[in-house]
Amino acid sequence: MRCESVELSKSNPNRRRGIAIPGKRRRADERIAEPRLASKQRTRTWGTTHHATLRKLISIDSTSQAMLKTRARCSPRPLRLSPFLGSRFTVARYTQAIFKTPKVSIDFSGLAIRSSREESMKTATQVFQSVLTSAALLVILGLSASKLAQAQSTVTCPSGTYDMLDWMTLDSDLASTYHLEGTSNPLYTVREPGKFYWVKGGLGYPWDIQLYDSNYIYLWITELSWTVPQSYKKFTYNKNLPLVPRCAIATGPGSTIKVANTSYDLHTNCAQSCSVTLGLQSAINQVWGPYYYSFGGNLPGSLKTLVISYRYNCDAGYQKCLDKEEYYLTQRYGLVQWVHYVFVNGSYGQLQKSIFNKLVVGVVTPDFPCF
């Protein structure tokens, strides 16, 4: 590229506008110092090959610096430094710039910066140490962030028990980027203090919303209409249906909860509601396992699995329950399978089954507009 210096002059209006007049350019402005560098690197400036070296350092007081002005038709390009330690810094390409003050005109175009081997080695060592320090900090911060991301808001459960909040939810390092898909609807996990969402649609609804504290995890809200987020079903007293203990025993069966009051409310919109009793009122919930299952998809095989059995529409003695739902849970992936059975002719028959066995990129924000 051809670059021309334009000197400010009251006597030449064309030059004030930064226009060079053909034949009037002063070659004295373009001279480059004659002494040669030890380096064999050459630089090309305005079509002429030259060597450049630094022979002096110019000190300008603060008053003069404030008055410096330049007009150049190309911006100065940065210096390229030789990659070899101990060599002189060489200029790969220059653009001439004339800095003018009332009493001084200084041409920097012929300057290169000399650096001794000792200074270069010292600078390189400092840079290397800074890089190592930064890399170490990044590794430490990355590991800490990873641990924080994977850590769940769990309680310390006694030996031999399981924190069911950890098992019912997708780990937060996954939930921040992924959701689960499979044979039916998607499943997004969103955790908030005191509650978590299983969002079953990409619009933020429908959903199942569960409450939790240090004692239990409670069934709370589910959709009434798949397409209307203002409609929902909610257990009347919020925590009147504990599903599992927060710290549960899992054997065959393990922790067991009997629920006498299963009443809930139907809300056709955020304001209107009516009260309903869940079948024969009572329910019984149990934790089974651990078992080892492979659910397919892109999940690992032979996952350690806990199963929550939720039976409702039960008689007073909890012996006959007309409905049963099973939640298959893994510690890292949360809910990976759900099955609904109905009691017919003395045994349970499968009515519906959903498998969530594929990690897919995508997250949502729950849309629950009522409260």
Number of helices: 5
How would you spell out the order of helices and strands?
HEEHEEHEHHEEEEEEEEEEEEEEEE
Low-confidence stretches: 1-115, 136-151
What best-fitting shape do the alpha-carbon axes yield?
Answer: globular
Structural account:
It is a single chain. The protein is α+β, with helices and mostly antiparallel strands. It has 3 domains: 1-115, no CATH class; 117-150; 162-361. The chain is 14% helix and 34% strand. It has 5 helices and 21 strands. It has helices spanning 13-16, 62-66, 117-150, 164-168, 172-175; strands at residues 43-45, 48-50, 98-100, 105-107, 162-163, 178-182, 188-192, 195-199, 207-212, 216-223, 232-235, 242-245, 247-248, 256-259, 264-267, 273-276, 282-293, 303-314, 321-330, 334-344, 347-361. Strands 7, 8, 9, 10, 11, 12, 15 and 16 form an 8-stranded antiparallel sheet that branches. A hairpin with a 3-residue loop joins strand 9 (207-212) and strand 10. Residues 1-115 and 136-151 have low confidence and may be disordered.
